[in-house]
Amino acid sequence: MTSSRTPFAVIGATGNQGSAAVDELLAAGAPVRALVRHPDADAASALRDRGVEVVAADQEDRDALERALAGTAGLFFFTTFEGPDGTEGEARRGITVADAAARAGVPRVVYSSVGGAERGTGVPHFESKRRVEERLEQLDVPATFVRPAFFMENLLQQLPTSDADDFVLRFPMPADLPMQMIAVRDVGRTAARLLLDPDLLAGSAIEIAGDELTMDQVAATIGEVYGIEARFEALPVEVLASDADMHAMFSWFATSPSYLADRPGTRKIVPEAADLRGWLETQRRRPQDPAAA
Question: Residues 165-188: pLDDT tens digits?
């Protein structure tokens, strides 16, 4: 573990992955510098209240990023394809961060990518993340790629309400095909621990998951945790015909296998990584605000 008082930089510190990384770093006694677009926002103020240094830096502004990253012990960041410019914007922003990290001389970078990014999935928002990985490789930046499997949080909008008597889980996925999954919080934990102790991982990338279940098993577990009858209903992938990205992803899910996570390696880094049952228990304890996960 590092003993330096030099701060670790986190981009996206107010999001789910980033906040988990911040929590982990602070718990280890490490100083944190959060790079945010809106330093006057309530979420940024909450970070300051916890002793986090908050610096304004947009992922589109390489010069501002370079200044903000100067003198840091390491960087954790992730990218998203949400927004009007989709996957092109995601790749552009990620490459901008990579360039800034290289110019600032950041000694190590952890990038949260996606499981299968390096395997040519043809899924647009997987390929955009791979472009960011490739840029980091081209720049010879000391980088580690954390590649998460299916987010358990993808189930949030379908979880039963507290007064439900029965439940049907619906996804355009086969009922009997194993799916590896991970809680978003455990992605941030993994990233932070790899920043603090790079020796936890022998290589430069790890695909992570906390559980592996078929959709039938997922539905059954939901039913057991919520104490209701539950089943899974497979939808045809054609329901996503109007969304090429999602159609490609769920078509890829239907291959066997899709994700190839190192579950023992995941638990070496985060022994307490949630399985689905544990994650569901956490969600059930706060049914009034499922989006808070």
Answer: 899 999 999 999 999 999 999 999
Q: Note the pLDDT tens digit of each residue in 68-118.
A: 999 999 999 999 999 889 999 999 999 999 999 999 999 999 999 999 999
Q: Kindly calculate the radius of gyration of the chain based on its CA atoms and give it in whole angstroms.
A: 19
CA atoms of 251 and 151, how far apart (whole Å): 17
**pLDDT, tens only, 18-49:** 999 999 999 999 999 999 999 999 999 999 99
- Name all domains of the chain by residue range, CATH numbers in brackets: 8-292 (3.40.50.720)
Rounded to whole angstroms, how far apart are CA atoms 47 and 56? 13
Overall pTM surpassing 0.90 (yes/no)? yes
